[in-house]
Design brief:
This protein is mainly beta and 287 residues long. Helices cover 12% and strands 34% of the residues. The protein has four helices and 15 strands. It has helices at residues 39-49, 53-60, 79-86, 121-128, and strands at 3-6, 10-14, 69-70, 90-92, 103-108, 113-117, 138-152, 155-166, 173-176, 201-207, 213-220, 227-234, 237-244, 257-264, 273-276. Strands 3, 4, 5, 6, 7, 8 and 9 form a seven-stranded mixed beta sheet that branches. Strands 1-12-13-15 form a four-stranded mixed beta sheet. The protein is globular. The two termini are 31 Å apart.
Length: 287
């Protein structure tokens, strides 16, 4: 099982979360701190999955790694529209279509396909509209069934999607109309408790079109310099190990923050499993 390892190359801005300082108003510097040795646990996870029945099940299923929502061209026209989307504040004006179709097909570039239950337009809309709170709203005036392309654990796939017409936009908002396959039981358990040296990743944010980089949402606390992610590559998997840098001893506010972290791969992800070293499971995608 050949392996290679590389270091995090890019950390993006925090996602809608405001960090509070430590009790003394400062953050520790991680410049002189050695990085944790994440390789032993990553190798353990990679070996457990390599050739396992869980890996076979995962490679046969549909597990999205990209955002199930594709925004309209030019989104967003205003700060209010962006706020409405991020807070899931939608208004439905009109009726949504019903379809006699019960199944939808996922089709990969190599021609393989998988049939899964198709979500109705209303159920798909309900996944967009998650708030009844005050504030700006986006108005949906209709929908039709179409397709979109999405990154999955088996590479890019064409999947059915509901195309929602948004008031004020010339192109639709697309939302994937399928749920993921049921995940297999992992062949290895999680680490007991998170520490600064190893922390559970939140989710996959996206995979580059060429498969050579992966962006994940990584956790960290209020009294550190942010998250980092190590990557260990094998023939069958890519194991990501999230940890915190610049940690500081002493009293600190109890906050769990998150940032996007992008890691570069030595070769395209392809159908290799994307695994979390802490949980011993595949890193979950957005649903």
């Amino acid at each position: 099982m050949p392996t290679t390892a590389s270091r995090t190359v890019l950390s993006l801005a925090a996602l809608g979360l405001l960090a509070a300082g430590c009790s003394d108003g400062s953050k520790g510097s991680g410049a002189s701190e050695p990085a944790p040795d994440t390789r032993p646990r990553a190798l353990e996870v990679a070996k457990a999955w390599d050739g396992s029945s869980a890996a076979e099940t995962w490679r046969a299923g549909y597990y999205p790694l990209g955002d199930p929502v594709q925004l309209p061209d030019g989104a967003f026209h205003s700060g209010d529209d962006k706020e409405a989307y991020l807070t899931q504040n939608f208004t439905l004006r009109g009726d949504l279509p019903r379809t006699s179709r019960k199944d939808g097909k996922v089709t990969w570039r190599d021609g393989d396909s998988l049939t899964l239950p198709l979500m109705e337009a209303r159920a798909t809309y309900d996944r967009l509209d998650g708030s009844d709170g005050p504030g700006p709203r986006l108005t949906v005036t209709g929908a039709k069934l179409g397709e979109t392309t999405l990154a999955t654990s088996r590479g890019p796939a064409t999947v059915p999607a509901w195309l929602f017409t948004i008031e004020g936009y010339d192109t639709p908002l697309k939302r994937v109309a399928l749920g993921p396959s049921r995940p297999p039981k992992p062949p290895i358990g999680p680490v007991g408790s998170p520490t600064a040296e190893l922390w559970e990743l939140d989710r996959v944010v996206g995979v580059a079109a060429d498969g050579r980089s992966v962006t994940v949402r990584a956790h960290h606390g209020a009294c550190d310099d942010g998250p980092a992610v190590d990557v260990l590559e094998t023939d069958g998997g890519v194991v990501l190990s999230g940890y915190m840098v610049g940690t500081r001893d002493g009293l600190c506010t109890s906050q769990l923050l998150a940032e996007n972290v992008t890691v570069e791969l030595d070769r395209p992800l392809g159908d290799r499993l994307l695994l979390d070293a802490f949980t011993g499971r595949p890193v979950r995608g957005a649903e």
